[in-house]
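Fold this: 1-Cys peroxiredoxin
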Amino acid sequence: MRLGTVVPDFSAVTTKGPINFYEWVGESWCVLFSHPSDFTPVCTTELGKMAVLVDEFTKRSVKVLGLSCDKLESHVDWINDIKSYCLDIKGEFPYPIISDSTRDLAVQLDMISEEDKDNVELALTIRSLYIIGPDKKVKLMMVYPTSTGRNIQEILRCIDSLQLCDRKNTIATPANWVPGEKVMILPTVKDEDLDTLFPNGYEKRSMPSSVDYLRTTTDY
């Protein structure tokens, strides 16, 4: 899997029943992520925090889909523990978790580590995460080791950046950007087009190199 890869259609058994990926996701964005194993501490925090913030994903037209190689019965039992740990989860657990007990899908989606790729019968999925656009292409990838839990707010921040730049292809978001802050105007935008593209204003910053490339705006 690489940036720009079209995620193949697949069928899967989940905690919300069987799904066909393309039919299930429709025209929405998707966060498809794997975790190493049920009934483990870091995974419990990750899936719990993702569930607590699921409304934030929904507001962004993003569907959330989990995956591991555990059996479906294990997922169902573990969800009770997740809800006990994250008391902010109200009602039913809000998103499906795929049971990929054969590991076929994990291998296809490149969610097995390099050291375990030749031993897939015993391998656990790593903490892979793909943000997938409505065109079914991978827009962003995150890969974490089993020891390091993911930051759900950072995932949301990345979605905000991806969706903004998808709507307005003349900008990019800088380090630590959050919505409302200045964005960078791409070097491909000509100076003579700035007033038309950014009628509410922009800033140009001179650099010691005298190369005129650092331009910012909040007009988006």
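The chain has seven helices and eleven strands. The chain has two domains: 5-150, 168-217.
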